[in-house]
Amino acid sequence: MHIVICDDEKVFLDHLKELLVRDSVEKNMDITVTQFFDGRELLEAYGTGKLPHMDVLFLDIRMERTDGLETARILREKGCGCLIIFLTSLEAYAREGYEVKAFRYLLKDQTDKDLGKVMDACRRELGTEEYFTFSYERRSYRIRKRDILYFESRKRVIILFTSKEEYQFYQKLDVLEEQLSGNGFFRCHRSFLVQERYVKSWKEHALWLEDGREIPISRTYEKDVNRRLMLRMGD
């Protein structure tokens, strides 16, 4: 799960990161935390593609340069579908938060007590164990992982294949492979990441899925693929 924190108080920023890391260890969840000190910095990173897909955004409402509400509005206009948790010391922003689809509010003086409950709600909403989430052309998508047959990299674009649909988004296959580690996907070619459960048969330079699709196996991955699929047959 990729969590982003945007707050202009460095002491609070570092404290929240420490709490998030502690919570993830207790819940046995893998997270990555990225920090920003103001909304403008966050928007610039998102707009230039330097910021990877966000799952959860903790966003301070009151910041001097670009406040949290304006930052959230711009992100929504750009198609960002992440869960937004507003950080505030005041309980007076419910209407504005509704307009930008805020998921929760977290009072700063209650962070130590309430963060665990907020993160549990985020995990339930995202379905981190069941769904793959991504954004493309101002739209956000959630695809059940078990429905994904394979991913194919075509230059800068990733094509996601299910039995009925195709989707595309921007990502590096190396990053995607690491993100899906432990979820039943394996690399068989520099351009292909396949879900093991759908492999029906294979030989030296190709494998076939249950629906008959053929996926190439490169020499680089041939031994690893053969070992993995042979172990699967043994099970």
Describe the structure.
By secondary structure, the protein is α/β, with parallel strands linked by helices. It contains 7 helices and 15 strands. The chain is 35% helix and 32% strand. Strand 6 (131-136) and strand 7 form a beta hairpin. The protein is elongated, with a radius of gyration of 20 Å. The mean pLDDT is 86.
Strand order across the largest sheet: 2-1-3-4-5
SSE pattern, N- to C-terminal: EHEHEHEHEHEEEEEHEEEEEH
Overall geometry comes to elongated
Helix content: 25-40%
Largest sheet: 5 strands, parallel
Give the class from helix and strand content and strand pairing: alpha/beta
Q: What percentage of the residues does DSSP assign to strands (E)?
A: 25-35%
Distance between the termini: 30 Å
Low-pLDDT stretches are none
The count of strands amounts to: 15
Taking all residues together, what is the mean pLDDT?
Answer: 86
Secondary-structure topology with pairs:
Layout: E1 2-6, H1 10-27, E2 32-36, H2 39-47, E3 56-60, H3 68-77, E4 83-88, H4 94-99, E5 104-107, H5 111-126, E6 131-136, E7 139-144, E8 148-154, E9 157-162, E10 166-170, H6 173-179, E11 185-189, E12 192-195, E13 199-203, E14 206-209, E15 214-216, H7 219-234
Parallel strand pairs: 1-2, 1-3, 3-4, 4-5
Antiparallel strand pairs: 6-7, 8-9, 8-12, 9-10, 11-12, 13-14, 14-15
